[in-house]
Specification:
heterodimer, A: about 550 residues, alpha/beta, eight-stranded parallel sheet, three-stranded mixed sheet, B: alpha+beta, six-stranded antiparallel sheet, 11 helices, 16 strands, about 30% helix, about 30% strand
Chain lengths: ~550, ~375
């Protein structure tokens, strides 16, 4: 720091930053890779001058100053350039000479990351590592009278149904009268949740689509991926792979033109249409694609000008009530594909989830309900929304499932739960817990980025710069210099890897519970938790 | 694991025959309880009181008085009853309960104007009322209230209980269709309502093993709005209710039952002649799919008896007999004890796709694989 540097209220020292760069002068070869790779320019090359006082023995000769210079790395202390701990500098360093280190005691930056009156926006997930789903245990193990099944050898049926399933009485009536049957898709119970073309880089998107296609066509797993709002590349819309895709439309209708225009040329129907009303990470808030990421390609696909921020409003503005909105949107989307495609809304978990669900139960065209809990991730949201708003998924989902049980429609309207599944890496256990609480399927986004592409974001405020298009791994960036770091083939490979391991793990959970011939939706007697209040709230066993 | 034994015969036979068969399978059950369902009754119930609803249960003295008051209030008059109050020491583990009763009632005036369904509803409602009354005071336990049906349940070893209740002595409880279960009490507390066989509106069944899909199926059945889908104290009661739901509510043949509880895989359905129908059932009834391991033996209102297995066939089961009498057993030794002079080469052990049915004529065993074409259902 320069001696004449003014000290203002926002002046910070390196110590005030949550992440500090540790740089070893002796190991550094001064190649400069670390500074060039740093997504937030937290470090820069520095020229340091060193003054040494040489004091000879005796009194005859005076002490001398000797000056030398050396080159090194300097960390900036300006809050705008604070290190985000992504560790890309370490990743590219040939000698392991540099790396960020978290200082748990430094939290001063929190008070300064709203300069210019702009509250902080970021991507990622809530800055909270705890997860109720991780506390749930599976306790109904068949040991004594009934042999547990062998996860490796028995046949398992893990697929679930997406779409309105008629009750036995109704379906037999429809069958005998040859009436209209609501479209139902048999899918794998873990869906890749909506991450839009715009939020993700083209390479990431391509990788995911390739992985999904491989899982379907080579591994016989009917995995589905939601597009998120923002449209779909025209070539995909006109390809046979569209059947693996759930097209999302949100209140911004971004990219919807492209989809509508492609309908006559679609070779196959999409798997389903998801109408997005809300996201768990920013409940009651709209989508937000910040201007950094709206490049020529994204602008073209979304049908908007380049380099403008694209917030979609929190409600579907052409309709003035949720009843009207749900009914109209579902009706018109169903009609667009000749009532051959399931259409369902996605909402943030909230106190009004039940109201939306009640609406859907009376709508014969509603194909399900996706509920996104507070731990869901996002590409961009205000820090305050992400950290402090939203409803946990477990109790919200349970309430919805119980509401369906009360009216006898638990078979009919599938619930898709999302938000925080695999937050601590326990993907299969979290998914199984939610399925047993009543979800027909789960959706994951963040885990896909972390496992599929090496996303560095964490729930301790590491990285989380998806919003400004500088993703150090090239996952959420629209800058070719960044996203070419990501090899789509490798992403596809990883997606296949974690799906297969999920498949094995989920079998390892449900086989000892004695389930194999159907997904254990609502098998709440299998669940236990050591938290009395949580056990009572969820209607599961209290075990200590 | 429980042991099951059922007999279907052209002529009424003693329930002790089934209990003896359970006794030879004793290694397979711990004798913690026995349940008996008798249908196609002989003796006076057949000759003089055919069609009269019969209430079976256990009552204390005050319970009997309350029962009398209740039935009178509903216009039911008792016509004939078999009341047995043991005066000797019960076997070890069996409590002294009072009177074991099977009472045939004359129905109130105007009853015949009701439809069959309405009559059924009334009987189910009365049974539920009585059960509730009994649970409040602990003086009444009812197991069934239906024409031509007697159900006996008790805690203890089947053979000892059979002798204690002198089941051999009274020819009026000889029956054509007998379901008997020797219980192994593992998962649940001893509760007579949890003891098999279970009965609802002419459909009775018993099951061994465990049903890991119990909670979702229970919740689903309870939400169907069917009177009598309640009191789930055992994880097997759902099998009876599913059979009732399939045959009575959906109006399907019993051969469709197996398609509901253990649907075929998509691959197997591809070439099936009833592909569309079965796919419809598979989707809409998927909440009723069981996961086993179970062997289910049941009997229907028309007098037929059936056996089916879980998808993986993790429980044994065998059916055999001769013209006039057939047995359904957990083990072949039980069958040997009950019908020793049958042609053993014609014994049939249903596998994971099969349903075995013996009609009320007790003429032959008919088997039905899930891969076979079903009779036209709708």
């Amino acid at each position: 720091m320069l001696t004449e540097r003014p000290i203002t209220p926002s002046t910070l020292g390196v110590k005030d930053l949550p992440w500090q760069i540790e740089w070893d002068k002796d190991l550094c070869t001064q190649c400069g890779r670390c500074t060039s790779v740093c997504p937030v320019n937290a470090i820069e090359l520095g020229v340091f001058r060193k003054r040494e006082i040489k004091t000879p023995a005796g009194l005859r000769t005076k002490a001398e100053n000797s000056y030398s210079i050396f080159y090194g790395i300097r960390q900036k202390t300006d809050p705008a350039y604070a290190c985000i701990g992504c560790s890309m500098c370490n990743t590219v360093c040939p000698n392991n000479a540099i790396g960020p280190k978290r200082d748990e005691t430094s939290d001063t930056l929190k008070f300064h990351n709203n300069r210019g009156g702009q509250p902080r926006t970021r991507g990622g997930r809530r800055n909270s590592g705890e997860s109720l789903l991780d506390q749930i245990k599976f306790i109904r193990i068949s040991m004594l009278t009934d042999p547990a099944l062998d996860a490796g050898r028995h046949e398992f049926r893990l697929n679930t149904l997406l779409g309105r399933v008629q009750s036995p009485e109704e379906s037999l009536k429809t069958y005998s009268e040859q009436g209209w049957k609501p479209p139902v898709r048999e899918i794998y119970p873990m869906i890749i949740g909506g991450m839009s073309f715009g939020a993700l880089s083209p390479n990431m998107w391509e990788g995911l689509q390739m992985g999904v296609a491989y899982l379907n066509e080579e591994m016989n797993m009917p995995v589905r991926i939601s597009t998120g709002e923002g449209g779909c590349p025209p070539r995909l819309l006109r390809s046979r792979f569209l059947k693996y895709v759930i097209l999302q439309i949100a209140s911004g209708y971004f990219g919807w033109d492209e989809i509508i225009h492609a309908i006559p040329e679609m070779k196959v129907d999409p798997c389903a249409i998801e109408i997005k009303y809300g996201q768990g990470a920013k409940p009651g808030d709209g989508g937000l694609l910040m201007w950094y990421k709206v490049n020529k390609l994204i602008a073209a696909i979304r049908g908007v000008p380049e380099r403008v921020s694209l917030p979609s409003p929190p409600t579907h503005q052409t309709q003035y009530s949720i009843e009207e909105s749900v009914a109209k949107m579902i009706q018109s989307m169903s009609m667009a594909w000749g009532f051959r495609v399931p259409v369902y809304p996605k909402i943030s978990a909230s106190s009004t989830s039940l109201a939306v669900l009640n609406n859907l139960t009376r709508n014969p065209y509603a194909a399900g309900l996706a509920i996104d809990g507070e731990d869901g991730g996002t590409g961009a949201a205000y820090n305050v929304s992400m950290n402090h708003m939203g409803h946990p998924i477990a109790s919200n989902l349970r309430d919805c499932y119980n509401a369906l049980v009360t009216i006898g429609k638990q078979n009919e309207l599938p619930l898709i739960a999302g938000g925080g599944i695999g937050k601590s890496g326990n993907l299969a256990a979290n998914a199984a817990a939610l399925i047993m609480l009543g979800a027909s399927a789960v959706q994951v986004g963040k885990y896909v980025m972390q496992a599929g592409a090496g996303c560095l974001g964490s729930e301790k405020d590491r990285c989380n710069v998806c919003n400004i298009g500088v993703c150090p791994k090239g996952i959420t960036s629209q800058d070719p210099r960044l996203y070419r770091r990501l090899d789509p083939e490798k992403v596809a490979e990883r997606v296949v890897d974690f799906y297969l391991s999920f498949d094995t793990e989920i079998k390892k959970i449900i086989a000892p519970l004695g389930r194999s011939s159907a997904l254990p939706v609502g098998m709440s007697d299998a669940l236990g938790i050591s938290d009395r209040a949580a056990a009572d709230r969820l209607g599961i066993k209290y075990v200590v | 694991m429980c042991r099951l034994f059922a007999l279907t015969s052209r002529d009424p036979i003693s329930p002790m025959r089934a209990i003896n068969a359970l006794n030879v399978m004793k290694e397979g059950h711990d004798g913690s309880g026995v349940g008996l369902c008798l249908r196609g009754l002989g003796g006076r119930f057949e000759e003089e009181f055919e069609g009269c609803p019969i209430l079976s249960g256990i009552f204390t003295e005050s319970g009997l008085r309350r029962l009398e008051q209740y039935t009178m209030d509903h216009g039911f008059k008792s016509q004939y009853s078999i009341l047995y109050t043991p005066d000797h020491e019960p076997p070890t583990g069996t409590p002294v309960r009072g009177t074991y009763a099977a009472i045939a009632y004359k129905v109130p005036r105007g009853w015949n104007d009701l439809t069959e369904a309405q009559q059924g509803q009334k009987l189910v409602q009365m049974r539920l009322d009585l059960k509730k009354m009994g649970e409040e005071e602990g003086d009444i336990m009812v197991f069934s209230f239906w024409p031509d049906t007697i159900i006996v349940k008790e805690v203890g070893d089947p053979l000892e209980i059979g002798e204690y209740l002198q089941l051999d002595a009274n020819k009026n409880i000889y029956a054509r269709r007998i379901l008997a279960q020797g219980r192994q009490n593992t998962n649940y507390a001893i509760n007579l309502y949890a003891c098999h066989p279970f009965f609802i509106e002419g459909v009775a069944s018993m099951t061994n093993g465990e049903n890991t899909a119990f909670i979702p199926i229970k919740e689903y059945l309870q939400s169907r709005g069917v009177l009598g889908y309640s009191g789930y104290q055992s994880d097997s009661v759902v099998f009876t209710h599913i059979a009732h739901f399939v045959t009575k509510r959906l109006g399907l043949d019993i051969r469709a039952y197996k398609h509901v509880i253990t649907p075929l895989s998509d691959l197997e359905l591809e070439d099936h002649p009833d592909r569309d129908f079965l796919a419809t059932i598979k989707k809409s009834c998927r909440k009723l799919a069981i996961d086993g391991p179970n062997c289910i033996i049941g009997t229907l209102d028309d007098g037929s008896m059936f056996m089916a297995q879980d998808r993986k066939k993790l429980r044994p089961g065998i059916v055999g007999g001769k013209d006039g009498i057939y047995g359904f057993s957990s083990e072949v030794c039980g069958l040997d004890a009950a019908i020793p002079d049958r042609d053993r080469t014609k014994d049939f052990q249903p596998m994971h796709l099969d349903t075995v049915i013996v009609g009320p004529d007790c003429k032959e065993i008919s088997t039905c694989s899930q891969k076979d074409q079903l009779p036209r259902q709708l």
